[in-house]
Design a protein that fits this description.
Blueprint (H helix, E strand, L loop, with lengths): L2 E8 L2 E8 L3 H4 L1 H14 L3 E6 L13 E7 L8 H11 L1 H5 L4 E7 L1 H6 L17
Parallel strand pairs: 4-5
Antiparallel strand pairs: 1-2, 3-4
Family: Belongs to the BolA/IbaG family.
InterPro entries: BolA, BolA-like_sf, BolA/IbaG_stress_morph_reg
GO cellular component, one term: iron-sulfur cluster assembly complex
């Protein structure tokens, strides 16, 4: 069994990558559910599911704050608001239960190829409760 937690400094942010041969559905059930739903519905050419919960005041290992990057032909001729609605509808159960925040980057393959392919870091958590 291979387990490891690695951090990679990328554009002034630290991205945590957990590598394991264990069943990721058990280790990260919400992340796995998000990945499966987006993969099945949108067949993306590129997809990233980034758990940003560690940036917030939640218990270690939480799955409450995510950023998704989805590149799909299914976004062709769809305005940005429609792309976001598609993703929000696919993840309706997660958003109504455990996911507190979802940041979405939704592009066509052409837009992705023309872009820098760098994802902007999310802003630092302000602590909530009007702080």
């Amino acid at each position: 069994m291979l387990r490891g937690l690695y951090h990679i400094k990328h554009n002034c942010r630290v991205v945590f990558t957990h590598t394991t041969r264990m069943n990721s559905t058990i280790d990260k059930p919400i992340e796995s559910s998000i990945k499966e739903k987006l993969q099945n519905a949108l067949t993306p050419s590129h997809m990233e599911i980034i758990n940003e919960s560690y940036m917030h005041n939640v218990p270690k290992g939480s799955e409450t704050h995510f950023k998704v990057v989805v590149v799909s032909d299914k976004f062709q001729n769809q305005p940005l608001i429609k792309r976001h609605r598609i993703i929000n509808e696919l993840l309706e159960n997660e958003l109504q239960s455990v996911v507190h925040a979802l940041s979405i980057v939704a592009k066509t393959p052409e837009q992705w190829e023309e872009s820098s392919k760098k994802i902007s870091p999310s802003p630092a958590c302000k602590g909530g409760f009007g702080k």
